[in-house]
Amino acid sequence: MTVFKTFLKVLNKLKFVVIMYTVILLVFGVFNMQAGDSTSEFTASRPDILIVNGDKGSVLTENLVRYMEDNCESIDVKNDEEAVDDALFYRDADYVIYIPENYGKNVLDGQNPRIEVKSTQSAGASFAEMLLSRYIKIQNIYADEMRDEDEIINKINLSLESNVKAELTSQLDSGGLSRATLYYNFASYSLLAGAIYVICLILSSFNEEKIKKRITVSSMNYKKHNSILMLSNGVFAVSLWLFYVLLSFIFIGKVMFSFQGLIYIINSFLFAICALTIAFFIGSLVNNKNAVNGIVNVFALGSSFLCGAFVPIEWLPQSIVNAAHVLPAYWYIQNNELTKTIEVFDFNTLKPILVNMGVLVLFCAAFILFSNICARRKRKIA
Amino acid sequence: MDNKYVIEVKGLTKEYNNLRAVDNLSFEVKKGEILGLLGPNGSGKSTTINCILSLLKFSSGSIKIFGEEMSPDAYDIKRNIGVIFQEVAVFEELTVYENIDYFCGLYIKDKATRKKCIDDAIKLAGLGEFKKFYPKQLSGGLLRRLNIACGIAHKPSLIFLDEPTVAVDPQSRNNILDGIKKLRDEGATICYTTHYMEEAELLCDRIIILDKGKIIAQGSADELKELASIEEKVTVEINNLKPEIIEAVKSAENVDTADYIGNTLVITYKKGQNNFGALIDFMSREGVVYNKIFSERPTLNDVFLELTGKELRD
Q: What number is the ipTM of this complex?
C-alpha cells in the first residue's frame, strides 16, 4: 500500500500532463469530429441547378428535367445569358444544364444529342454532373434498343429507382461511425503521449539510482516493490483509457452502444495496454526526466502522424504507410477504420480486426520482453 | 545470536577487473559501539559498506550481521538496519513528511506505529518546521538531515552512515553529529564512514583506518595516536625567522622535525617532557618575537601521514 500511495502522490504531481493531453483530445478530437460531420453530410445535400430547357413539350425531355429536379434544387433566373452567368458567379447555382431544341426527338432517332453544361466545379456541381451522366447513360442504353418513348421512360425510371434502393440498403450510421473513428484515432495520440509521459516520469523517480539503492537495502522485497509499481502503472493506464472511453460516450453517443462501439472499446483497451508496455520499455531505457519529454514528443507525435491519427492514412505516401507497419498505432487505427465499414458481424468480417488485435498483443509481448532484457542488462552493469 | 558482535567481517575481498578495492578485510563491530571507517577517497570505505549491505557481490570472505549470514534476501536482518548514503536519496515530488513516511513504510506496515516513528525521526533531525516543505525548498544541510531521517525513521538497531556530513554547513553538521550520538545513546550500533578525522575522533569509540582497501590501523582515537612516533606538535607564527635560529631549533633535544613555511614554524617532538616550556625559554633568550604559539597532540592525520606517507585528505 505504501508503494501504491506514493505512486498516487507522485502521479498527483503530474496531473497537469493528463489534463493537458485530455484537453488536446477534446479540442482537436472534437474539432476533427465536426470536420468529419460536414463531409458525411455532403452526400445528403442537394446541389442548386438551373435548367435551360430548349425542348419544352417533349415527354422524354420532361422526364430528364423531372429526375434532375427531384434530386437537386432547381432555381429560376431570367432567361438570358448574363443572368445565368451571374447565378453561377454568385453561387446561386452550382450547375447549369442547357437542353437543346429537339433533344427528345434526336434521342429517339438515335443521334445521341449533346447537352451543354456550365459548372462552378464545386462539390455540388460534381454531384449534379454525376446525376446527369447516370441518367444519360441509362437513357442511351434503352434508346439504342427501343423506339417506344413511354417504354424507354418506364425502363429509365425503373433503373434509376432500383439504383436508389441499392443505396438505401445500408443501415450504417455512417456519420456517427465516422465521428467515433476520428475520436478514437485521435485518442491514440493522447493515450500514447499521456501514458508514456506520466509512467516514464514516475519510473524515473523510483528508478533513480540512489532511491533504488535505498529500496534495495530495505526489508521490502525489491521484486515485490517493482511488481506493485508496475501494477500501479497498469491501474493508471487503464484509468486513463476508461476516462477516454467515458468521454467517447458523452461526445459520440448512440454509436458507442452498438457492436461497433464495443469493437472501438476493445481495440482502444488493447492499445492502452500496448502504450503501457511501450512506457515500461522507454522507462527501462531512459532515467533522465528531461529526456522523457523529448522522447514522448518524438514517439507519440511521430507515431500518430505516420499511422494516420491526425490525417487520413490514404493521404500519406505508400513508403510512409509501409514504414508505419512497425508501429502499434498503425494496427490500432486500421482496426478503427475497418470497424467504421463493418455492417455484418460474422467471422469473415471480424477476421481482419481480430488479426490486427493479435498484432497489438504481439507488440505488447515484444515490449515486455525488451523491457526485461534492458532491466537485466542494467542490473548486470550495476 | 551472539550478542557480542553485531557485524563480523572475515577476509572480505572485492575486485573490479584487476583492481582490488577491498583487500582481505576482517573486523567486528560490537553492540552499541560507534565504529568509524576512516580513510581518504578511494580507500574502500563505501565499497566495504556496500558489500556488507549486499549491494555489491564480493569476491571472497564472509559477512555476518546479528550472527546471521548477510544476503540480498535476508529481509529479517535488513528490517533492523538503517542506511544513510552519501548522496541525498529522496523523492523530489514528495514533502519532507511524505518522504519519511514512504521510506519508513518499506519497513513498518502499521500506520499508527509508523506515524510515531516518523514524528520521532522528524524531531531527531530537527525538521519539525519543514514537514510540508519539498526537497527543492530545503538548504543543503536540511536535505542531509532529511536524508538521515529517512534512513533511521524505522528505529533500526544497526545504522550505517556513509559520509553524512559531506558539504554540510557547521550548524547542520553539529545537529547531525548530535543526532548520531543520541541514536547511540538509544542503543543503536553505528558504522560511520568519513574522511573527516575530527568527526571520527569526536564520535567513534573505535576507528579503523583504511588505505587502498586494507586496514592499516585500528583502535580508539587515543590508541591510534600512540602509533605516531611524535608526541607533540608546536606551531609558532614568526615573521622573518633567521636560518641559524631554525638550525638551533632542529638540533634541540627531542625535536624530530622543524619546518619554516611562510611565517609558520612547525616543530614536532618525539618523546620527552616540557618541550613547549624549553622552546619558549629558547625564544626569549634569542630575542625572537612571535605572534602566536600553541602546542597540540598528534592528530589522526599525523598518524595516517606516518603510516602511509600521505595526507588523509589527499
A: 0.81
